[in-house]
Specification:
Radius of gyration of chain A: 20 Å
Strand content of chain A: 15-25%
Number of helices of chain A: 15
CATH architecture of the largest domain in chain A: Alpha-Beta Barrel
CATH class of the largest domain in chain A: Alpha Beta
Strand order of the largest sheet of chain A: 4-14-13-12-11-10-6-5
Number of strands of chain A: 16
Structural class of chain A: alpha/beta
Oligomer: homodimer
Largest interface: A-B, 33 and 33 residues
Number of domains of chain A: 2
CATH superfamily of the largest domain in chain A: Queuine tRNA-ribosyltransferase-like
Largest sheet of chain A: 8 strands, parallel
């Protein structure tokens, strides 16, 4: 691709409806319609799905993970194999997380200094160092379209002092990440707002990141145990400090309701392991709310999860069969429910986008929540 | 379907090449091209594959299992849900094994009397009884196209006396099974030749079954630890006693080489868990022989398993990626290798059928074995 043909990384805001926003992020590997849900492909696979299926559900972008991929197969190894897109067979955009969250949640022994995070691999116990510069280098080697700064994540609860310290360090790491990112046509670098559930800290973080300047802004450190009410509050007091002309990404969120409520508060992008993880454990997210397929009442139910869905996993398999597969511990049960959940999430995003375009997001939000509550009619 | 439209269960022998046979089995749910490999769908799913994929590999028929399905979800339950075809979403023929083998291999406490087998479920320890009549009733409730008699299987090694006793009991059960099967247009009932690796016993069993009369004849009790040489010998001395105008099914076999050698000895039908089970453990069966994807040498190999295969699992994913998925314990690795193996098995069967049709089976057999030995060219 010659320089003239390389698309600029850009964000276009098409419409707003209240705080909800309809937009497009353009990247080297194509467009991302926002609000967007990004299926998580931690180690280079959206667990239990073929990437064709992921694409067919309407996903424009998937996630990869710096922490996991640096440990196995290794960033240089992926680069030698032609980059992450080629390695896994995905032609659309990829966002890679920086590894900050996984260092907190997965590695056993970790030490955070001004220079870098040092941690033990959860796979083989070997010691690794990850600096802001190395995190960016890894993401460049992977060839991801949206590259996240390295940040320090905290578990909840934590003290305000710890939150401030981690936020300030993340801000200094943001600056180093930005410099390390350099200029990569068609690719974007996102800063991550930290500061726990403290308004002052979140504002300081957001202002600091804006003065560095990023292609997009993420809100990190939420959905770590604080509960939905505090999470939404944190979004509310953070959002006004984010630039309107850049995409906002709420990291690691969440349930369909979390997403709906966060879109209502101005969020553009989401990722979460919930649809695939829940699917592997027998739980389906549908138009009719959550359905636990392991429940005995589904054993004789010949209805599919949602007869009106274009996704075969939702419309072509009976609940009785899904129940049988889950009770029998069969791979196909996990495959079908992971697929069904990703499909439902994407149809929810499509519904959100359409309702914003038509200026009826509030009505859509109310109807959707009402339908979840109403549930499905008994068999 | 009116009676006039119901196809008769039939077997047509189109050609022979040495002892190898090319034929078609016709059933209520369509034709089965023989020699046929039947993917195993023990509990109503070919592990790790969508049934569309199974069909696309060229499989005409899959297996279900009486033992597993009677325990979960239950034969009457499947019947209420519209039968096994509808329950799992497979429109082509299904063969159901009778459960004899699983009672031997899976259940803990078992008692075999003249009347029936009594055993404990491997799932919850509950006691169950399976008589020849009940085994047929279950298979009728499942709605399978080819229904196997209940037999008594023995582990290897065993004494000749035990083999004779089990064979004679299986013969008496064959008679009861046949009566219980009754008349089911478009469906077939297969007897099972037992008798271990003893020529006299196998002959007695085959003659006894022939005088009862079945739509097809299986050879049971092989591939239970006796080794390939003894297995092939047992096929050789059993085959002359099987009627030429009925399909012969070698139960639970085997490796690609076992299949090739057994076709050369007059076998028409096969089933085995090997392609899916091996796939879940990282082993691929290919034109180039067995490939263990967990082996470190594949980590940097960008070649697919077989660039010339029409199956995406064989031709569209690099060995490096498959290696990474298996090392990471990812579902997609198991899915892809199970799919690749079923696809290879079906392409082998297609090659076998075509070579018999063209009168060059011996050459095909030699070339295929030669290619397995030669392996793939190093990367």
């Amino acid at each position: 691709m010659t320089r003239a043909e390389t698309p600029e990384f850009s964000f276009t805001l098409h419409a707003t409806d209240g705080a909800a926003r309809l937009g497009t992020v353009n990247t080297l590997h194509g467009a991302i319609r926002t609000p967007a849900f990004m299926p998580v492909g931690t180690v280079g696979t959206v667990k239990g799905l073929y990437l064709d299926q992921v694409e067919d559900t309407g996903a424009d972008i998937i996630l990869g993970n710096t922490y996991h991929l640096m440990l196995r197969p290794g960033a240089e190894e992926v680069a030698k194999l032609g980059g992450l897109h080629k390695f896994i067979g995905w032609k659309r955009p990829i966002l890679t997380d920086s590894g900050g969250f996984q260092i907190m949640s997965l590695s056993k022994i970790r030490k955070i200094t001004e220079q870098a995070a040092t941690f033990q691999s959860h796979i083989d116990g070997r010691k690794h160092e990850l600096s802001p510069e190395r995190a960016m280098e890894i993401q460049r080697l992977l060839g991801s379209d949206i590259q996240m700064q390295l940040d320090q994540c905290l578990e909840y609860p934590h003290t305000e002092k710890d939150a401030e310290k981690a936020m300030q360090l993340s801000l200094r790491w943001a600056d180093r990440s930005r410099k390390a990112f350099g200029s990569q046509p068609g690719r974007g670098n996102f800063g991550i707002v930290q500061g726990g559930i403290n308004e002052r800290l979140r504002r300081t973080s957001a202002e600091g990141l804006k003065s560095i300047g990023f292609e997009g802004y993420a809100i990190g450190g939420l959905a770590v145990g604080e509960g939905q009410a505090l999470m939404l509050q944190a979004i509310e007091f953070t959002e006004p400090h984010l630039p309107k002309d850049r995409p906002r990404y709420l990291m690691g969120v969440g349930t369909p309701e979390d997403i709906l409520e966060s879109v209502a508060r101005g969020i553009d992008m989401f990722d979460c392991v919930l649809p695939t993880r829940s699917g592997r454990h027998g739980q389906a997210f549908t138009r009719f709310g959550k359905i636990n397929l392991r429940n005995a009442k589904h054993a004789t139910d010949t209805r599919p999860l949602d007869p009106e869905s274009p996704c075969p996993a939702l419309s072509c398999y009976s609940r009785a069969y899904l129940h049988h597969l889950m009770r029998s511990g069969e791979l196909l049960g996990m495959m079908l429910l992971s697929w069904a959940n990703i499909a439902y999430y994407q149809s929810l995003m499509q519904g959100i986008r359409q309702s914003i375009a038509e200026g009826r997001f509030e009505a859509f939000r109310a109807e959707t929540k009402e339908q979840w509550k109403r549930g499905d009619v008994p068999a």
